[in-house]
Amino acid sequence: MPNFMLNDQVFFDAVKQFPTPFHLYSEEGIRNTARGLIKAFSGVPVFREYFAVKALPNPTVLRILKEEGCGVDCASQTELMLAEALGFEGDDILFSANDVPPAEFAYARKLGAHINLDDLTHVDILAKNGGIPEEICLRFNPGGDFRIGTQIMGNPGEAKYGMTRAQLTEALLKLKGYGAKRFGLHSFLSSNTTDSAYYPTLARLLFQTGRELMDETGMQLAFIDLSGGIGIPYLPDAPKADIDAIGAGVAEAYHDIFTKNGIEGVAIKTELGRYMTGPNGWLVTHITNEKNIYKRYLGLDASACDLMRPAMYGAYHHITVPGKEHLPHDEKVDVTGSLCENNDKFAIDRMLPKCEIGDVLIIHDTGAHGLSMGYNYNGKLRCAEVLHCADGSFQQIRRAEKPMDYFATLDNDPVFEKLQKL
Questions:
Q1: Whole-number Å distance between alpha carbons of 50 and 210
Q2: Given pLDDT bands bounded at 50, 70 and 90, which one contains residue 153?
Q3: Within 10 A of 209 (CB to CB), how many other CB atoms are there?
Q4: In this predicted structure, what is the pLDDT of residue 137?
């Protein structure tokens, strides 16, 4: 089920303090999720979560996760800069390269971050931009379809990420020549899955591959990075990921492939984003318009600029109307934003209770890939972020954009001075 941990009064209290739209996050929910994850993986000798910054790059949220023992997974220089400013360094940071400019390798090396190489050609690039560390990680793409039983979970052969099996050996031997002594192995083969078999199956693949690579190269396996991929139930009747069963399955695979064969000290890392914060966020908005033509439309003060997943992927996000959930859901509507794009729709043919202009609407599960995927089409300004603190209070943790934020990069044009005066 979508997350209903906050009661209606919390949303009503929030809109009294902050103009809509805004994303609201639950501090208690984020902390509890982090603690539950760490407990679930207590069966492996060393475990750490590296939160995927791209999911929710907000300093307050990253501080909360840092307090809960998490590191960060970064994929760009700006994410590295944010991590550095928040006091993450060295082992706290994973940097996954994906067609990155060479200078970003050098920046990650300056921070002492774990570097995850995506391609064989990156070996020489890193050697010239920051140098090869003693411990390095490689991203593996096994190709073909990734299956659990007869079910296809992903299509790595169609993905742009990672190296082939043969390239892993070639890369490690080259890295060894540069002085590398230990390696990590990373792979991401399925997105947003709640199947409890995904991580354990992926773990067995990586554990076995890691053993083979140790034999082939004589290098020590330092860690396995299971990346992200654990999903959340966006649909009301969708199953929730059983994180305890997932952790136990990984621990069993660890015991079978490593412990029983005398291999010790291999750490397990994850790079979860959606699972950590997705269910702990909501887009809070008001109905500002209604329209009745061939269909009935409810227009919001939010748009795809604040949450683009429905417009981009046709993704489902549950919608509730605080104070009216007890009423019959007998009105079929499209819920829309104000962009000049017909795909700016949060829901199509959704059954809701009878709504009126001025009603508060809550769009669920927006705590990951929500505002972080925002944009400024039509000159729309991205909304604020608010934290529902553990003590019940509210804290604005990002203000809404202002017009001058949108115009800021025009400071080399004569019109900029006039815009500042408007």
A1: 20
A2: low
A3: 18
A4: 98
d(CA 18, CA 367): 18
Per the document, the length of the chain is: 422
Nearest to 350 by CA among 300, 420, 419, 408: 300
Distant-in-sequence, close-in-space partners of 364: CB < 8 Å, separation ≥ 6? 2, 3, 234, 279, 282, 317, 318, 319, 320
Domain parsing of the chain, residue ranges: 27-278, 279-410
Among 147, 140, 116, residue whose Cα is nearest residue 206: 140
pLDDT band at 100 (very low <50, low <70, confident <90, very high): confident
Three-state SS string over the chain comes to CCCCCCCHHHHHHHHHHCCCCEEEEEHHHHHHHHHHHHHHCCCCCCEEEEEEHHHCCCHHHHHHHHHCCCEEEECCHHHHHHHHHCCCCHHHEEEECCCCCHHHHHHHHHHCCEEEECCCCHHHHHHHCCCCCCEEEEEECCCCCEEECCEEEECHHHCCCCECHHHHHHHHHHHHHCCCCEEEEECCCCCCECCCCHHHHHHHHHHHHHHHHHHHHCCEEEEEECCCCECCCCCCCCCCCCHHHHHHHHHHHHHHHCHHHCCCCCEEEECCCHHHHHHHEEEEEEEEEEEECCCEEEEECCCCCCCCHHHHHCCCCCEECCCCCCCCCCEEEEEECCCCCCCCEEEEEEEECCCCCCCEEEEECCCCCCHHHCCCHHHCCCCEEEEECCCCCEEEEECCCCHHHHHHHHCCCCHHHHHHHC
Tokens of 10: 């919390």
- Superfamily of 27-278 according to CATH: Alanine racemase (3.20.20.10)
* Tokens matching residue 311: 């417009």
Residue 282: which of 25, 19, 17 has the closest Cα? Answer: 25
What is the mean predicted confidence (pLDDT) over 95-116?
94
Model pTM above 0.85: yes
What is the pLDDT confidence band of residue 176, given thresholds at 50, 70 and 90?
Answer: very high
| Two tokens, residue 351 | 């059954």
Residues 289-318 have pLDDT tens digits of 999 999 999 999 999 999 999 999 899 999
Q: How far apart are CA 350 and CA 87, in angstroms?
A: 44
For 279-410, the fitting CATH number among 2.40.37.10, 2.30.30.100, 3.20.20.140, 3.90.550.10 is 2.40.37.10
